[in-house]
Amino acid sequence: IIEFQKRGNSHSRKLGQSKSRLLSGVRVLDLTNVIANPIGGRLLAKAGADVININPVTGDFILPIWIEGSWGKRNIRLDLKSQVGTQRFKELLSTADVLIDGHAPGAFERLGFDSDTLFNINPNLIRTGVSFAPRGSLWEKRRGFEQIAQTVTGVTHAQSEGSAEPHYTPMLINDYSGAYLLLAAVAAALAQREAEGGYWDA
Predict the structure, then answer these.
(1) Could you tell me if 82 and 59 are in contact, meaning their C-beta atoms sit under 8 angstroms apart?
(2) DSSP H or E segment with residue 200
(3) pLDDT tens for residues 10-44?
(4) Residue of 126, 103, 94, 118 lying closest to 36 (CA atoms)
(5) For 49-105, how does the pLDDT look when each residue is reduced to its tens digit (9 = 90+)?
(6) N or C, which end of the chain has less CB nearby within 10 Å?
């Protein structure tokens, strides 16, 4: 469910003992939208992290969902397709501990931020994000939604027993459980980085 991949051994960023909450002193860049990843970022903020929610200059937002996912975060707008926006993002990235990447598969790489680029900017970064399908699986490059996740995990089948029509569970169980797994993954990766250094995909 949670997979870690380490790269390099740089130990230039150390957090030391937390002075209050679990993730006090941790800086998080949040590039997310909709539910699972934004709620994961909100949980990190609740645990004490300084979460900077980076929003596009223009885009589609469902305001109640955006408010729920942005609670406890600082919000800025950056155009990552512009030279100025890209430069500012790189500056923020160089000082971050965690990056939550909520882009569709391959989209962040098309913006020029593949793993090599991220590693070169910040060799102590933890890159994370709730993914619909496991790395290396046949569906790795597919977009995922709660309804699809409920179907492929058997939740829809269980919910529909005795009915002629398929039914989804109204609670977004995959999105919210995925958000809590993101919190656990980041905490574990930070502990590993504190001990071993390096760049982590979690």
Answers:
(1) no
(2) strand 199-201
(3) 998 888 777 788 999 999 999 998 899 999 999 99
(4) 103
(5) 999 999 988 877 778 888 889 999 999 999 999 999 999 999 999 999 999 999 888
(6) N
CA distance 170 to 2: 25
For residue 120 the two structure tokens come to 């070169």
What is the rounded end-to-end Cα distance, in angstroms, of the chain?
10
Whether residue 36 contacts residue 175, with contact meaning beta carbons closer than 8 Å, is answered with yes
Give the torsion through C-alpha atoms of 181, 185, 186, 191, to 10 deg.
140
Tokens of 38: 């934004």
Phi, psi of 51 (to 5 degrees): -105, 120
Give me the amino acid identity at 132: F
Q: Pick from 193, 201, 202: which is nearest to 12 by CA?
A: 193
Ramachandran sector of residue 168 (left: φ over 0; alpha: ψ -120 to 50; beta: rest): beta
CB 199 within 8 A of CB 8: yes
The torsion region of residue 13 among left (phi > 0), alpha (psi -120 to 50) and beta comes to: beta
**To the nearest whole number, what is the mean pLDDT of the chain?**
91
**What would the DSSP string read from start to end of 84-104?**
HHHHHHHHHHHT-SEEEE-SP
CA angle 141, 1, 42 (to 5 degrees): 85
Q: Which amino acid is at 41?
A: G
